[in-house]
From TrEMBL:
Top-rank lineage group of the source organism: Eukaryota
Any one biological process term the GO annotation gives: regulation of RNA metabolic process
Protein name per UniProt: 4-hydroxy-4-methyl-2-oxoglutarate aldolase
Cofactor(s) listed in the protein's UniProt record: Mg(2+); a divalent metal cation
Subunit structure: Homotrimer.
Length: 166
């Protein structure tokens, strides 16, 4: 992927920002993984302290998509670890946004995938399989819908209704 600058995207798309088609997430996410800059169409999951659906989704071909996981903002356990980071890399996911925690940070940082999360926690999640797929989620001050586009770099994270010109 060519380098994409979120700041430039904001500067050159003022109309999209003013009408809500381009939104910036609150700056609360930490950067993990080897890809500092990533983008792709969004696939959403809504789970709470349970990562069975996360694994199931990352076992599918990502084809350059970004998995957006609404973990309810819980920091009591991790939803993504090193094994899932490797799975995301191997299956062609561009990135993962976790409204929750990760673990195995050193392993995730070795993966060629972009990861943003609220923080890290060594505790693993439950394995009950509860949650929803392809539903609107509210993360970082904005509503995010399945099929929208996510753009992330060191400056922040943008959500766009449509693919932006790079």
């Amino acid at each position: 992927m060519a380098a994409f600058a979120t700041a430039e995207a904001c500067d050159s798309n003022a109309e999209l920002i003013s009408n809500g088609d381009l939104r910036a997430l609150h700056p609360t996410f930490k950067i993990y993984g080897q890809r500092r800059c990533f983008s792709g169409p969004i696939v959403t999951l809504k789970v709470f302290e349970d990562n069975v659906l996360v694994r199931n989704q990352l076992e599918t071909k990502g084809e350059g998509a970004v998995l957006v996981i609404d973990g309810g903002g819980s920091t009591r356990c991790a939803l993504v670890g090193g094994n899932l980071g490797q799975l995301a890399q191997n299956n062609g996911w561009a990135g993962i946004l976790v409204n929750g925690c990760v673990r195995d940070v050193d392993e995730i940082n070795d993966c060629d995938v972009g990861v943003r999360a609220l923080g890290s926690n060594p505790l693993k999640s439950s394995k009950k399989g509860h949650g929803e797929k392809n539903v609107p989620v509210y993360i970082g001050g904005t509503l995010i819908r399945d099929g929208e586009w996510l753009y992330a770099d060191s400056d922040g994270i943008l959500i766009s209704k449509t693919e932006l010109s790079v």
